[in-house]
């Protein structure tokens, strides 16, 4: 089971079990449920207002307002997932836009992934 705090609504908790993502109110009532189309179990979950960032063994998915908004298949296992705050530029050559996800992979690569595609890859 993966847990995350919903930043938009501090009275809600979000979690994932298998391919299901769910939100629970303070009183324990289920507020929303989303079943991911991926066959991988969700191992990483970050919630930022209406955006859900999920990571499996090698796949990353972005959901905007409970709709599939992006997908990326990494070359190696995803070890960690973090989301840059809005307006932060991961590289001086890139323009600020919607929050990007940073994937730390087992091949010692950091991959910055946005909505349309991977923007930046660097060796750690």
| Rg from alpha-carbon coordinates | 14 Å
The CATH topology? Methylamine Dehydrogenase, Chain H
**Structural class computed from helices and strand pairing:** mainly beta
What distance separates the N and C termini?
Answer: 29 Å
What's the helical proportion of residues? under 10%
Q: What do these coordinates show?
A:
It contains no helices and 12 strands. It is an all-beta fold and 124 residues long. The chain has a single domain (2-123), classed as 7 Propeller (Methylamine Dehydrogenase, Chain H). Strand 11 (109-113) and strand 12 form a beta hairpin.
Protein topology:
Layout: E1 2-5, E2 12-17, E3 20-25, E4 30-35, E5 44-48, E6 51-55, E7 59-64, E8 67-73, E9 78-83, E10 101-105, E11 109-113, E12 118-123
Any descriptors?
124 residues; single chain; four-stranded antiparallel beta sheet; mainly beta
What is shown here, in short?
With 124 residues, this protein is mainly β. The chain is 0% helix and 54% strand.
